[in-house]
């Protein structure tokens, strides 16, 4: 609770013109938003916005999936009402959301020992999870994030009353996964702490463990008795294959971890602003799942009562209509492929420019983001001299790269790194 | 595997319990008067035609689904504030409000509660009217505030306890937060009269309290948008820098689309900017940015003159049907031969009616007549139709004679 300073107290004795918010400071600007705003002001016709965390087609335009348009048409034809969903959201969505992540043949689904609730996209899911852990997790308050992690993870857990710690993850020397560093740090995490794992397409680095590395992580996490929180924001979007991208999640469950899981449909279904996501708790049995569900409802009700219907109806229609599901799989594959192609073209372009640096990581990294390895000064030059906008950590969104501008990008990156 | 501390089964939601029991009942005459959503005279959910028209306009544009900003759809925010404060509001002219799109009324209240918890320098106490909407309590509690109450409903008159309210408010410590329902008080349907609002305003000013208005029923109460916003606008004119939650769930029938707004009336535009920046920092780790669909619909309606007119007519229509049901219920009770005073059924306003029934009477009404309502005697007038109001009157009379 902030203390009122004496001058403010005396000011508040006067009623008229009293300021309740005189002590409210201007908050720091959002770093990523700052990138977009500077980009908007730039008049250079060759400018590139590589801060954007949303998919773009090869013309650099936002992409609404055709399966989404088809689903919308089906929904519109039904002229459904707008009655409140229940607190946990659209049941058909929840079922298919869990099935997508866990696999249709999952023992968890058969035994009904998961509770899956509709959430406000990935952020809403993570926050519900964080709040749930804060209220019900009997272990330490610490949540271990990979270093680095998505910026918003930190305030999500902090504002929910958890404390943040980290384990080594990204190796700047290789622009790859610091496997030994991760295992070393994880081995020291106190029992029953929460560990956050990115299921695929790690944000912001694009660096994912290989399957044999995931296995070692799973064994160690089991040994340390840690509570696993999976963040899966890019299922399908990483490799182009839904099941491949969910492999780590499903492996951990098979290995006996009762995980909590956040899912987002912002990227893989392009439903960004519709806010579609899911939060799952894998429990011991169906009875426990019922208890957990009851507590999730009590937690959710005073945050937003019940989730928004539109996006969930679209996602559910796609997941539950075989023809649309096929179209969707093809479109996700297409988006992932375009990203992969841009990576290949960027790496080839850098070679062509004559760069002698190792750019293998551009191809090895996966998903929307690429941790280039550029230093802040180099990033600054790239922005100032070439109007290429990205975050200071050297992260670029491959979604902002097109066959039309990848050559320009290669030239710029080479210029600031040669 | 790791064992999460295994939580106990939580208590069932009281209102949900009503609906679930209703579903199981096979009596063809059963009535669900727990539902807090408008129903037409056939007892069916009602999607406004202005909403359908807006949806068609939006669909034709084939817009993308890019993220809204953290504070939501700008056109919606502007028109949402204009609807509440009035087009000629000095607050809007000077830009000294910040209005952000929220996840309906609950989302707005929670953002407000979180904001107060983080930035309000005064006491942690939020004073709710007694009774208030059940969800107000966990909203403020989970945000870190503490709850207190001031007298509001007078069970003796089934009306407003004006002297009790003033007496309690006069004792509220300075700079505490006081929650006021702008119109159509939930759950009682009892609203202060304008001259009573004036006394409340003067006293709140004297006590230097931070006013939090909850306006979930603008237009839905009297049928008139401006009339229902009168208290909010009066308080602002009187110099209260209020915070305000708005919902479009009922007045636009957008329930499941989750459309609402949260407004902070500041000293000036500079302060509004600072407050905005902090609201964004608060919202981002809750849900990043709000859902677009409902806000696009509401914004289209508010900003398209023909649709706006249609909307005003439909809101008026919904409010009128409720008012008619009140009149028919009161007349029906008289016709049944009831000697009790049922004036409050007509005097109360909005979706809900605090009948004055005791728990035992409510139980009989449910068991013997399959009329479902909450234990506090609250009925949703939305669940009453010209087809069943007679049956309801007979039931209420039977358990109260």
Describe what this molecule looks like in 3D.
The structure is a homodimer. The first copy, chain A, is α/β, with parallel strands linked by helices and 418 residues long. Helix content of chain A is 47%, strand content 13%. Chain A contains 17 helices and 13 strands. Chain A has helices at residues 6-13, 31-41, 66-78, 91-102, 107-111, 121-136, 153-159, 179-186, 211-224, 242-245, 247-254, 286-304, 309-320, 322-353, 360-364, 376-386, 406-417; strands at 48-49, 114-119, 142-147, 163-168, 170-171, 176-177, 194-198, 227-232, 260-264, 277-282, 369-371, 388-389, 395-397. In chain A, the strands form 4 sheets. Chain A has a 7-stranded mixed sheet with strand order 2-10-9-8-7-3-4, sandwiched between helices. Chain A has a two-stranded parallel sheet with strand order 1-12. In chain A, helix 4 packs across helix 13 and helix 13 crosses helix 14. The N and C termini of chain A lie far apart (52 Å). The interface between A and B is large, with 91 and 80 residues. Chain A: Its EC number is 2.6.1.1. Chain A: Residues 46-412 form the Aminotransferase class I/classII large domain. Chain A: Belongs to the class-I pyridoxal-phosphate-dependent aminotransferase family. Chain A: Keywords: Aminotransferase, Mitochondrion, Pyridoxal phosphate, Transferase.
């Amino acid at each position: 609770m902030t203390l009122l300073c004496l001058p403010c107290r005396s000011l508040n004795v006067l009623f008229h013109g009293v300021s309740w918010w005189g002590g409210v400071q201007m908050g720091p600007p959002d770093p990523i938003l700052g990138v977009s705003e500077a980009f908007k002001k730039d008049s250079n016709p060759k400018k590139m916005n590589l801060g954007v965390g949303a998919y773009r087609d090869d013309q650099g335009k936002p992409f609404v999936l055709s399966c989404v348009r088809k689903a919308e048409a089906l929904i519109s034809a039904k002229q459904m009402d707008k009655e409140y969903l229940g607190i946990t959201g659209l049941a058909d969505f929840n079922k298919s959301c869990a099935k997508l992540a866990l696999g249709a043949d999952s023992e968890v689904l058969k035994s009904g020992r998961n509770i899956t609730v509709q959430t406000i996209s990935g952020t809403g899911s993570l926050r519900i999870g964080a709040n749930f852990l804060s209220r019900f997790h009997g272990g330490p308050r610490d949540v271990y994030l990979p270093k680095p992690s998505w910026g918003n993870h930190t305030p999500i857990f902090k504002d929910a009353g958890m404390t943040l710690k980290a384990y080594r993850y990204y190796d700047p020397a290789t622009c790859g996964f610091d496997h030994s560093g991760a295992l070393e740090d994880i081995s020291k995490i106190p029992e029953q702490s929460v560990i956050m794992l990115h299921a695929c397409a790690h944000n912001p680095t694009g660096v994912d463990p290989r399957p044999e590395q995931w296995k070692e992580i799973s064994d160690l996490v089991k040994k340390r008795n840690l509570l696993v929180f999976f963040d899966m924001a890019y299922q399908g979007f990483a490799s182009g294959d839904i099941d491949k991208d969910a492999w780590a999640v499903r492996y951990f469950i098979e290995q006996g971890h009762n995980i909590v899981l956040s899912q987002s449909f912002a990227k893989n279904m392009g439903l960004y602003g519709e806010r579609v996501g899911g939060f799952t708790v894998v429990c011991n049995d169906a009875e426990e799942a019922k208890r957990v569900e009851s507590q999730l409802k009590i937690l959710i009700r005073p945050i937003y009562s019940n989730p928004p219907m539109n996006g969930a109806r679209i996602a559910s229609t796609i997941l539950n209509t075989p023809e649309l599901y096929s179209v969707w799989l093809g479109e996700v594959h297409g988006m992932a492929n375009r990203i992969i192609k841009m990576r290949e073209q960027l790496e080839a372009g850098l070679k062509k420019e004559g760069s002698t640096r190792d750019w293998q990581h551009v191809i090895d990294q996966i998903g929307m983001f690429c941790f280039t390895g550029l230093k802040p000064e180099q990033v600054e030059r790239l922005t100032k001299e070439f109007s290429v906008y990205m975050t200071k950590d050297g992260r670029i969104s491959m979604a902002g790269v097109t066959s039309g501008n990848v050559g320009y990008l290669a030239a710029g990156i080479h210029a600031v790194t040669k």
